[in-house]
Write a structure and sequence with these properties.
By secondary structure, the chain is mainly β. The chain contains one helix and twelve strands, in the order E-H-E-E-E-E-E-E-E-E-E-E-E. Strand 7 (95-96) and strand 8 (101-103) form a beta hairpin. Helices cover 7% and strands 45% of the residues. This is YhcH/YjgK/YiaL family protein. It holds the Pfam family DUF386. It comes from Xylanibacter ruminicola.
Length: 148
């Protein structure tokens, strides 16, 4: 997991060649004014979901992991807290290959981190994360899905 400011995202392009395309997309698009929806960037290997997600609490947020894709999550309208547990510390649960997700039921995160607008969080396949823990009713956010 990585948390940093959007201005520093370019420093992480050596971790995955597709990260450079995320940086370019952000330079050329204003997430604040874009409509909610799915934005293909590079076929199935890189796309962005711009969504409005409903509030979850520490009790209702569910840990998840992805095998095929890396998440770069950017809250736009308010701070978003994520629960975090390394995959190595999570129990076995069924993987949904079609949706590239494993959800971990009632398993509670080991720790929490808060990401503010203007910042991002990168979750790799080894990072269990519970998104959308917010104080507002909903959050507009961008989730870049990057082929791992």
């Amino acid at each position: 997991m990585i948390i940093d400011t959007i201005e520093n995202l370019g420093k992480y392009t050596t971790l995955n060649p597709l990260f450079a395309e995320v940086v370019e997309f952000l330079k050329n698009n204003n997430l604040q004014t874009m409509e909610v929806g799915k934005y293909p960037i590079k076929e199935k290997d890189l796309f962005m979901n711009l969504q409005v997600a409903k509030q979850r609490t520490k009790d209702t947020a569910v840990l998840e992991t992805h095998i095929e894709m890396i998440d770069i999550q950017i809250p736009i309208t308010c701070a978003e807290t994520f629960g975090y547990t390394p995959l190595a510390d999570l129990p076995a649960f069924e993987y949904n290959a079609e949706k590239d997700i494993t959800k971990y039921g009632d398993t509670k995160p080991q720790t929490y981190v808060t990401v503010n607008p203007g910042q991002f969080a990168i979750f790799f396949p080894q990072d269990g994360h519970a998104p959308c823990i917010i104080d507002e009713a909903e959050v507009k956010k961008a989730i870049f899905k990057v082929k791992a």
